[in-house]
Specification:
The chain is mostly helical. It is built from six helices and two strands. Strands 1-2 form a two-stranded antiparallel ribbon.
Length: about 110
């Protein structure tokens, strides 16, 4: 999805080429994944000038990140944000900049 969010529409061959270095997937694997994402309505199919199928996201990156984050929070932390934040704060090396940003975000959420 990141490949298509970054540049769309793209053919299956273009997606395969973009994923080659990081995933090294065969084009058939990419085509299978694209087909599944179309069935799930995460992608839309079109055609380019030469008639080749192209793919583009049907959902925004933000919508997917929110849905996946909510799902993760429910599955792993019972829907509670405090244990999630505590876990990451205690188990990751946060920079001073990251801590400052987290504090800013938390302060903003108090004002809502």
């Amino acid at each position: 999805m990141n490949v298509l969010w970054d540049a769309s529409p793209q053919t299956a061959s273009e997606v395969t080429a973009a994923l080659k270095e990081s995933m090294n997937w065969a084009e058939n694997t990419v085509r299978t994944l694209l087909t599944r994402l179309v069935k799930k309505k995460a992608l839309r199919v079109g055609k380019n000038k030469s008639g080749t199928q192209t793919f583009r996201p049907a959902v925004s990156r933000d919508a997917i990140v929110k849905a996946e984050s909510d799902s993760f929070l429910k599955r792993v932390f019972g829907g509670a944000a405090k244990p999630l934040i505590t876990h990451f704060a205690q188990n990751n090396q946060l920079s001073a900049e990251e801590i400052k940003e987290l504090k800013r975000i938390l302060d903003q959420s108090l004002k809502k």
